[in-house]
Amino acid sequence: MVDLRETAAGMAAALAEGRVTSVQLTEAHLDRIAAVDGDVHAFLHVDRDGALAQAAASDERRAAGGAASTLDGVPIAVKDVMATRGLPTTCGSRILEGWVPPYDATVVERLRAAGLPILGKTNMDEFAMGSSTEHSAYGATHNPWDLDRIPGGSGGGSAAAVAAFEAPLAIGTDTGGSIRQPGAVTGTVGVKPTYGGVSRYGLVALANSLDQAGPVTRTVLDAALLHEIIGGHDPRDSTSIQQPVPSLVDAAREGATGDLRGVRIGVVRELGGEGYQDGVLARFRESVDVMVAAGAEVVEVSCPSFVHALAAYYLILPAEASSNLAKFDAMRYGLRVLPEGDPSPSAEEVMRATRDAGFGDEVKRRIILGTYALSSGYYDAYYGQAQKVRTLITRDFDAAFEHADVLVSPTAPTTAFRLGEKLDDPLAMYLNDLATIPANLAGVPGISVPNGLAGEDGLPSGLQVLAPALADDRVYRVGAAVEALLEKEWGGPLLDKAPSLEGASR
Description:
11-stranded mixed sheet, Amidase signature (AS) enzymes, single chain, 39% helix
């Protein structure tokens, strides 16, 4: 019998020992999706036939003694921003409705080569613009802990799928926190690798200098196993780092011993206090105390430019997005809408009608903001100044890492808020990424690990661990240590405390 609450590493061990087949594992997860995704809405497209065919091929490889990887046969879900050959890729937008790419993103190629059956594509904020997965053109995703709450964004579909036991593993993308913030509010593990550490080829770009794909899992070890598969240099991505992936699995296993002696932990003064929920701060302080008890040395560090990160980000991201989304012009692929009452419209008129119908309000808002910031007369005043702030943020990180091996903070300032609560207030929505944005601006790696239940509603919160660029192994070591120490206190994984979705109905 398949235990859907087993870790991906545990499922891989069961496959290696012949206690279960990939077809059985995959079928069990597909059945779970059929049972609960009507309430969660984590998936936009489920590829039952394709996933089972990939699972059967995995079983044949194992029977012949030639597993393609440690995770060969363990199913996975992929955020709908990654190109998948033969499967729809919509980026949560009407403008790409029905588009089926003729190629795979490098990350998807590597998943297929490693033998992971792809269950389907997960829901997301349109073109990854959002903090709650309410801006999907295909409807909001719901948090498995409370179906009236958001699952974070933009990768709420991937996080919700993992939290609801619909998939043991998922791929997300993180532009300003879209892996880590959903991880915090759903009680899952989310990792943003060093910028350039995982190929962006085939990732439909939101902001080229910020986007980064990474793992969404239930444990730090599972994230390390997945990260080692998808990471590494890709000559098709000009931003890809020409260095081997560090030994992340070894770092996670070392951290799981719970020994943090010799590790210097920096608490970032600017990532806490006003705007942060009392329960979230309480869980964060408890996590720091746990690290101290495990032998870590804790120091407070100041990163004064972090207070300007949100403003800089919301100039840089829209500027890059306005350029990237210009290719959706109704001329080459995707949606095409003809203006009403005009039998022979011009290309510009078709383009205008298509974009009006195909893009949602949040996408239009950011395109307008980005185009304005890049316009003649405003480039230096806005975009240029934002890039200068970005440099200051990078310098703050460099200075902080002279005093600490890793930096820690709450991942998100609050637990999951109610669906619809902030839809009419974009600025309030943007504040959800307050703690995660600096890492994207500087390109450093980060992880969010569950660190307890906060607030009267008993919803998950997360601890963020950040390390210098290319030191991804540090976030895995410290993240795994915190995970092991807290689970010892809780008597098991945090997700074991999540309510069952059986029979749930909105």
